[in-house]
From TrEMBL:
Region (Disordered): 58-82
Family: Belongs to the peptidase M28 family. M28B subfamily.
UniProt superkingdom: Eukaryota
Keyword Transferase belongs to the record: no
Keywords tagged on the record: Membrane, Transmembrane, Transmembrane helix
Name of this chain's protein: N-acetylated alpha-linked acidic dipeptidase like 2
Organism in which the protein naturally occurs: Bubo bubo (Eurasian eagle-owl)
Transmembrane intervals: 108-129
Amino acid sequence: MAYHKVNADQRAQGHSPYLDNDELQATALELEWDMEKELEEPGFDHFQLDGAVQHHLGNSQSPDLDLEPIQPSSSPKGRFQRLQEDPDYVSHYTRQAPKSNRCSFFQILKVFCTALILFIFGIVIGYYARKKCPSPPTSQEPNNPHIYHEILKEIKAENIKQIYRDLLQFPREDDVDIAMKILVQWSSQGLEDVQLVNYSVLLDLPGSSSNTVTLKNSGECFYPSGQQCDRETKTLHSQDLLYSYAAYSAKGTLEAELVDIQYGTVEDLIRIQAITNVTKKIALLKLGQSPLLYKLSLLEDAGFGGVLLYADPCDLPKTTDLADKAFMVSLNSGGDPSTPGYASIDGSYRQYRPNLTTLLVQPISAELAKKLVSLPGDTVQKDRCIHLQLPATGKKVISLNIQSVTTYKTISNVIGYLKGTVFPDRYIIIGSHHNGLNAYGGQEWASSTAIITAFIQALMLKVRRGWRPDRTIVFCSWGGTSFGNIGSYEWAEDLKRVLQRNVVAYISLHNPVRGNSTLHPVASPSLQQLAAESQSFNCVEETRCPGSNVSSVQIQGDSDYFINHLGVPAMQFSYEDIKTSENSSFLFEALFPVRTTKTEELDPSFSLHETIAKLTGQVTLQIANEPVLPFNALDIALEVQNSLKGDEGDIPQLLAVAARLRDTAELFQSDEMRPANDPKERAPIRVRMLNDVLQSLEKSFLVHRVPPGLYRNILYRLDERTRQFSVLLEALEHCKLHQSNETIQAALSEVLNSINSAQVYFKAGLDVFETTLAGKK
């Protein structure tokens, strides 16, 4: 277009519309000069764009072309100034009045109206959405104890009682069936993510007929309960007779002399071996005082062939009548025996291990034990209980017949998740168990399941109002507990890598109401202070204030793997009867028939169940919601020092490293934990680093080699009577039995390395904090 206008004056009337060569060259030179000048002038960008469009349209002279984007050049010799001086400019290129101002006004008005309508519409939607679906609140400071109170007040004894009765009405023929019942119950309470996790495991089940004990001198045959072998008694309590056995015991028949070894301590063995040869003989062994698996390992090493196991009436609680009852025990230290150390998933290599010991082990009632030792039925004289003891004179030969069936069965775990909002990858696990045995295991499984279900119910009421915990709470009902905590072991082995990193604490509900006399709280050293404080909190709610001492002792149940393989801090509240003797420890290893532990007789109003539920709920909520984990590092160091007091032998190295651990723990407690607990000084990166350290405090105390039945976590003592590390006590006993100090030296080395590892871990945590804070400054 610009090219045509520049050369318009060269077209005279009658001339050809095309230029000759000379004229074309001159015109081209002039055009080139004009182009170079125009490139130097402002506004050329618009010209270039229009020129490109014109190139496609050709040399059209249509008057409708819009020249608005082309601005006049400011150059005195610019092309558009020369075009305006051309007399033919107006006549050749007349143009309409510009429309852009009017169009721009309507476009702006249209955009403004649309934006206004959308803004008003958005406000209306946001108002109603906020009204109907309130957003979850952020983490309170310090997560508002009032919220805990609102949740816990929803836990009521009558609700627990109703859940308990509903569970008992369901037939327990199969582990999977009861697990499905629990899954449906938890889902109906509103728990979003509930899973059924199945494993095929090797179980040792009773045979088709009961085991028997026969006196060879008289020919009398007895069932484990003490009843004589005849058809009437066999059909009367068939389940009790069948399930009075030791799972994973050796099978077969053994005829041998009966030897009374009392509680099977090292002193008992030394005494017996000094007067007789015990090879292939049958030991009469009392339950209690130390772990059963440990005592059986001593008897197996000594050369015994069989064991008759019973509970002395003087050791049993006075509130129970168990003298004529046999019981079940498991000789499995934990997990599926066919996959030791790894999960029983499809495709895993299976080891067929029907026997976990070479001993033929048979539990019997105290009544049968009395008949074997030829004592009258009444062993209580003038308010003094007489402990059962085989007479020194005379020799008793018995025949022991044990039959059981080892087969693969499916056990089921119920796993439910309540996801956290701030730290969803940190887990607080609450574990109960369900029992698949027809009539054994008592009703404790229903008590623990009812308590955990009532807690879920109270939590979900608050969740529906928009609240959620900061950390994830995992609810577990384990299967296969009575056979050696199989369900919890397999699940934890299956998820071991995840759990090692993510689990913060384990709260156990194993047999929460086994008596009605005293509250018995057990907690790892780092959680003892929290357990004591939770009792104080409950005293405000209840007129009956327990105020029991918190101890770190070995406990029964599915917390085993988490304590001894993952090093996770654990806690458990339970009601028990007053112990009648110092030998009553580890009586809980016996699993008595259901009729002997009627829960509703122990706690008719279910007030004890409510107390356990609220105590468990209180500690769970605090661990799940406190910004800084409520663990006490200094208590661990103090527990270590207390456990070294009174040990025999020369242990100056242990005392020195324990003192360093205490000094480091005190520094950690004062310099890091106290500032982090102050909201004014709390920094997110500091809290995260601190929680990572607190979460792994107890992992340093896992030793590699321990005798059967003893905890790998040395922070837990055998019972309340002992203060020393259990591995050191056992090593000293072993030294007496074998006249060698190799075991004690190995145990001392294990303990020394554990304490030193913990001290180094604390020190490394302090160094990281100092480096991080120095970098920030």
